[in-house]
Amino acid sequence: MSDIGLIFTGVSCVFFMALVGWVSWLKTRGTADTKEGYFLAGRGLGATFIAGSLLLTNLSAEQLIGLNGSAYGYNMSSMGWEVTAAVATIAMALIFLPKYLAGAFTTLPQFLNDRFDPAVRRMSVMLFMLGYGLVTIPSVLYFGSLAVIAFFDVPGLTGLGDFEALVMMVVLIGTTGAIYAVFGGLRAVAISDTLNGVGLLIIGILVPVFGLIALGDGDFSAGFATLGSEHPEKLNAIGASDDPTPFGTIFTGMIFANLFYWCTNQYVIQRTLGAKSLAEGQKGVLFSGFFKILVPFMMMIPGVIAFHLYGPELGNIDEAYPRLIRDVLPAYLSGFFLAVLLGAVFSSFNSLLNSAATLFSLDVYAPARESTRGDKASDAELVRVAKIASLVIALFSFAIAPLLAFAPDGVFQVIRIFTGFYNIPTIVIVMVGLFTVRVPALGAKIVVVFHVITYGLLRSVFDDVVTLHFIHIYAILFVIEVMIMLICGWLRPREQAWRFTRDEKVDLTPWPFAKPLAVTLFSCVVATYLLFSPIGVASADGPGALFATLIGALFIGNLALWAVNLRRSEAGASLAT
């Protein structure tokens, strides 16, 4: 990149980022002074901000590079993590969110304290904080820094060594991202996420378009035809046993991993807990599910295009997306792309930082202060503690992130191992807690200890003996741990059945179209898999009669469903008047 190009990229990137920051500041002035204002955006988030924030919180540099790299090196099978997440958003909208909002919970451990006891609350906080602090937050900074370095050759531009450039980018990205989380609270995070989300959607559409134009030597339709006719196996999402994501795993452990992430992971669900009503929360969560359906088209098709353009010549599959961006994206969009890339990294980082500080302030500091001093902390004190905690956690992550470069088996392996320590026991405890009334806190405590020990042994001592795919192991552990809790409820049930305590702070009227939209969303999941399958575009002959018949049946079924629901809605409205 020339000096003029570099200056243009930098100036335009700063302009777009400053615009996002300015709008976020205008929308958040004076809203982060109280506990609910800082941690839950004053319980005033609408569907647009919830959906936008969920999208940007979930998608970051590792998805941009990793998913495209997987499509380049293998096929579309890794879309399973993204597309099937839409099913988990349905569960969140219809099952979990009504309970969370009815109890006016600020954190998931607060619910576990209400359902079980303070010890279970402390155990869950410890698992979250260790996971966030040691791996999740540092890995976001690490991958974000690597992405910027890969796209814009930071060592070459600065004269720094690779590791020094990594450290510089970690501190730069982390410091900028922390400003939103520390000083603006959740509302600033949600607004900036939504604005950056619009940018991500624009880039997500433009990159495959420019890629197809390049593939067709300037002709978009020719590039599209090449994509569908040559190497159709690259478009297959029905993963075999040796693919990154075997197809069978979406019916076993992936279900529970996605349920954990979208229904119980604090840094994801926190923006839904800040919904101004149940209806707005349901809209936002379901809309985010539709965005997940778009991920294969925006973040995997470019990887397939890269395979057509470069063949298998790239030394590392993770080079596919950066190479494609450098080759096909016009220079005038480079600054905008960098701003979107950094925005995605900032989103994940500051969301994690805000949630970690929330957990510490509300689930560690507040209970400890009340037990030792006998009175509750004021809102101002809790916000001040959260800001201090955010700074400490940020500085800690700055120190850990560069060290991930020395992970012997790669960072993805480290993330996968550490996440497995707390995702399954969390979803087990929450689900059993929600749907039973006699299972005691003892069951939850046994499950946490059992899972940490068993999973640790499976991933270390018996890693070479137990060769079952780790996603299938998730499912087996889930079943075992549910049985443990139910047996505890049978042998030593609670003396008094647990009763859900309602604390309604927002309107809990469900959105009338939540259920039909959930059916449509699930239909889109099925349709996406039909499209990227041997009866769809992964066939050498292209989609055939069977594909058309199945898609037609889904379409007609949804039309009928919506016709019935609209008629009922009109009938209900006429009765109300």
Task: List the topology elements.
Layout: H1 3-28, H2 35-40, H3 47-58, H4 61-73, H5 80-83, H6 85-102, H7 108-115, H8 118-152, H9 154-158, H10 162-215, H11 220-229, H12 253-263, H13 266-273, H14 278-299, H15 301-310, H16 320-328, H17 334-373, H18 379-400, H19 411-419, H20 423-435, H21 441-459, H22 470-491, H23 514-531, H24 545-576
Please, could you describe this protein's structure?
α8 (118-152) runs antiparallel to α17, α13 crosses α17 (334-373) and α20 runs antiparallel to α21. The chain contains 24 helices and no strands. By secondary structure, the protein is mainly alpha-helical. The longest helix is centred in the first third of the chain and has 54 residues, at 162-215. The mean pLDDT is 85.
Instruction: Give the biggest sheet.
Output: none
What's the count of strands?
0
Query: Which geometry do the CA atoms define?
Result: globular
* Low-confidence regions: none
Helix content: over 70%
Arithmetic mean of pLDDT: 85
How do the SSEs run, as a string of H and E?
HHHHHHHHHHHHHHHHHHHHHHHH
Report, as a whole number of angstroms, the end-to-end distance.
65 Å
Report the structural category: mainly alpha
Please work out how many helical segments DSSP would assign: 24
The radius of gyration computed from the alpha-carbon positions, rounded to a whole number of angstroms, is: 24 Å
Strand fraction equals under 5%
